[in-house]
Structure formats: C-alpha cells, structure tokens
Amino acid sequence: MVAACGVSVDSTSTVGSTPTTGPSGAPASPFFDGETAVLEIEGESLVVAVADSSAERAQGLMAIETLGDLDGMLFIHESVGPVSYTMRNTLIPLDIWFIDEEGVIVGTSEMVPCPGSDCLSYPSPQPVLWVLETALGVFDFRIGSSVEVIAEP
C-alpha cells in the first residue's frame, strides 16, 4: 500500500478514528477528525493527531495547508516492520521521525512536498512501530531520544 504523506507497509497494517478535540473540546485541527495523543520527547510536549488505521495512515497529512493547533501526526502500526512514507499530494514540508518498538527515535529525514505521483520514498532505517511527522524545522530531536506517550487517546 502506498499513500501520500502516508505509508507503504506490509499487508498487516490497519487504521481507525475518533473525534479530535483540543483542550476546550473544540476541534484541535481543521484537517483531522480522529483522536489525539500527547507525547514527550526531550522535555517537549507535543499534541499530535493519531493515525492508527490503514485508512488514516494512507490519508496522512495529504492536502492540508497547516497543522492547526497540532504539532504533528503519529502513525501507529499494528506490528514492528520496515515502512516507507511518501509525500504525494502533501503541501507542507515535514520532518519524519522513525520510532522503534521501545519508543526510541532510530531515524529521521526531511521530506519535501510532492504535488504529483512520481514522489520520493522515505524508508525507515530499520523496523519501526511508530512514525511521527512534524512541520519541517520546528523540532530538533536526536537519534536515540525516547518518545513517551503521556496522554493516550
């Protein structure tokens, strides 16, 4: 499966959604109707949309112009494995953070928008369970940093 600002993974991956709301109960983002989580990385708290179904991962951050009140999107896979993301139909430049099953950042890359269908692929450097996308240049996390979920959806 290949998707814009989405993922190409083995056939075991799937996805799902629930309403996303900010602290006031209002929608946290203009583009995403799913659940959110709060992550802590290197002392920074991030509020992220959660893509934990194949449909949500395939949609990813395609066609959005801003992250709104969110710091990014966390893609959760059902099992650990190699993944590859693309920026097809994604409008904003992003950083991608590959996170293993222990919650450790094992790789990162800067991703550029690709309005067409012939887009670069951004593969994980090793099998991962999570992938985090954030606006380009906003965060400067290090390989080896721990990612902790401090508020689950």
Sum up the structure in keywords.
153 residues, seven-stranded mixed beta sheet, 10 strands, mainly beta, Jelly Rolls
Please provide the count of β strands.
10
From the 3D structure, determine the CATH topology.
Jelly Rolls
Mean pLDDT, nearest integer? 82
Q: Could you describe the largest sheet, including whether it forms a barrel?
A: 7 strands, mixed
Order of helices and strands: EEEHEEEEEEE
Architecture overview:
By secondary structure, the chain is mainly beta. The protein has one domain (6-14, 39-151): Sandwich (Jelly Rolls), CATH 2.60.120.1140. The chain is built from one helix and ten strands, in the order βββαβββββββ. It is globular, with a radius of gyration of 14 Å. It starts with 5 loop residues before the first strand and ends with a strand. The relative contact order is 0.24. Residues 6-31 have low confidence and may be disordered.
Task: Give the helix/strand layout.
Blueprint: E1 6-8, E2 36-41, E3 44-51, H1 54-59, E4 72-81, E5 84-86, E6 94-99, E7 105-111, E8 121-123, E9 128-135, E10 147-151
Parallel strand pairs: 3-4
Antiparallel strand pairs: 1-5, 2-3, 2-10, 4-9, 5-8, 6-7, 6-9
Short description:
With 153 residues, the protein is mostly beta strands.
